[in-house]
Amino acid sequence: MPPDIAPVEMSKAYRLINHGPTVLVSARHAGIDNVMAAAWACALDYAPPKLTVVLDRSSYTRKLVEQSGQFVIQVPTVAQAELTRAVGRSSLADDTDKLAHCGVELFDLADHDLPFVKGCSAWLACKLIAEPHNQQAYDLFIGEVVAAWADTRVFRDGHWHFEDADPSLRSIHHVAGGNFYAIGDLLPAKL
Amino acid sequence: MPPDIAPVEMSKAYRLINHGPTVLVSARHAGIDNVMAAAWACALDYAPPKLTVVLDRSSYTRKLVEQSGQFVIQVPTVAQAELTRAVGRSSLADDTDKLAHCGVELFDLADHDLPFVKGCSAWLACKLIAEPHNQQAYDLFIGEVVAAWADTRVFRDGHWHFEDADPSLRSIHHVAGGNFYAIGDLLPAKL
């Protein structure tokens, strides 16, 4: 496990994606790992935590998710904007060395046979909840979060701390055509 | 129609929520209007544009959506952070004057019998695509976007322009407990 990574309580896992970041989706099946970018991922429930993600039928990662029944949703950083664009542009179907060409390095976490992307700020290991109608009609997949971790430099004690972390650790929010906005200033609740 | 509002092409409508803002959901049925906050809204398709939104079964707005088969997703601004917290905290079931107490003003748009919230930066009028299993099992609602508008001070020519608009017009991204982050700096695609 890289330094600075700590588990996140299940009751706080939704907070890792509640602010709407673009995410990386990774999956593994039969010795094949892949990673894609997804702007269309969203929390769905608190306990147990669930989420939705839209996986286009042309994506290789979707096949790995369908075959293995599990996947990782991870939150890329400003420092990974180009990596995120790159994995969104290319397909493992066309480039068997896609991950290396995109600068993706993977790491393992004990008890989870899943590929985790180095350098992200948060990781949610998910078990697919099979909903064939949603998957076929809408490319919509539902996952139950079974474990989560975050980089403690930017998420700790159940809260994001973008405002006092290095700006390169901020989450990125895709609009279109490779243009992202970084997350910005904190607007704290008035107490 | 308030000044500065212009229609958004259907092919660009997904961009209004692609960066993951917290939204306001409004609906009308039998003379009753209501507005709620939702962090769990997400694009689902491009053409026709569709989106998902999670509506808790305790919310009054959900009943109006189920009864009328339509709703509005709108993007509140930094200036509306307190309004967004307020509509998220209170229910029309407990306070029949909720909207006034929360500072919500509504306006009409021709050809749409729906309540639109003044002061937002974008509005997506949606027709409910009934999916009873998703609605019952997951509180997950699917809408097809039938028309969209944006405040041209911050979204025009199919693009957000947060970087050169007044900061009070930035979108807000809820984490938990009334704490939001505003959207931040542009990370343009390298050409």
From TrEMBL, chains A, B:
The keyword Flavoprotein applies. SMART domains: Flavin_Reduct (SM00903). The keyword Zinc-finger does not apply. It comes from Viridibacterium curvum. InterPro entries: Flavin_Rdtase-like_dom (IPR002563), Flavoredoxin (IPR052174), Split_barrel_FMN-bd (IPR012349). The lineage of its organism: Bacteria, Pseudomonadati, Pseudomonadota, Betaproteobacteria, Rhodocyclales. Keywords: Flavoprotein. Its cofactor is FMN. Belongs to the flavoredoxin family. It holds the Pfam family Flavin_Reduct. Residues 15-166 form the Flavin reductase like domain. This is Flavin reductase family protein.
